Amino acid sequence: MERVVLCLMVVFSGTVAHKSSLQRPDRFLIRMRQLIDIVDQLNSFVNDLDPEFLPAPEDVKRHCERSALSCFQKVQLKSANAGDNEKKISVLTKQLMRKLPPTNAERRQKQRHTCPSCDSYEKKPPKEFLERLKSLIQKMIHQHLS
């Protein structure tokens, strides 16, 4: 009897260990952390950015986060002056525009939500634009983890 219990425990623990080692990294969270890093890097160049006012979503409704993020991604941040930073800003802006991987919640969601258009958001200077973008990304990370 003890041997049967011992064998069952070994088989069970082997199964649990096997399943936990097969879990994939969360691509969505990895991408969101990359976006935060990109925003932080762009913040270091905020004085080199064109002072043009940009649509910056704030207080985004639940289920409209991806739509708001796409509004941020559509904006072309430009360097105010030519030089070394112009190329860095261009590369960071392109990295910012990469698509997000889908989440399990989005795959299950059948209903489409009506979200405001990009033009409806208030336009802000680049510094505030980047602050609002970072805030939205942090909100999306928090929602994904909860």
Notes on the protein architecture:
The chain is mostly helical and 146 residues long. The protein has 6 helices and 2 strands, in the order ααβαααβα. The protein has helices spanning 2-21, 27-43, 65-74, 84-96, 104-108, 126-145; strands at residues 54-55, 123-124. It has a two-stranded antiparallel sheet with strand order 1-2. Helix 2 packs antiparallel against helix 4 and helix 3 (65-74) packs antiparallel against helix 6 (126-145). The radius of gyration is 22 Å and the shape is elongated. The protein starts with a helix and ends with a helix. The model has no long low-confidence stretch (mean pLDDT 84).
Brief descriptors of the model:
single chain, 146 residues, mainly alpha, two-stranded antiparallel sheet, 6 helices, 2 strands, elongated
How many β-strand stretches?
2
Structural class comes to: mainly alpha
What portion of the residues fall into strands of 2 or more residues?
A: under 5%
Mean pLDDT: 84
Backbone shape: elongated
Return Rg in Å. Answer: 22 Å
The unreliable regions are none
Q: What is the succession of H and E elements? A: HHEHHHEH
Multimeric organization: single chain
Distance between the termini: 43 Å
Q: Quickly count the helices.
A: 6
Provide the spatial order of strands within the biggest beta sheet. Answer: 1-2
Helix fraction, binned, reads 55-70%
Write the layout of secondary structure elements.
Elements: H1 2-21, H2 27-43, E1 54-55, H3 65-74, H4 84-96, H5 104-108, E2 123-124, H6 126-145
Antiparallel strand pairs: 1-2
Helix pairs in contact: 2-4, 2-6, 3-6
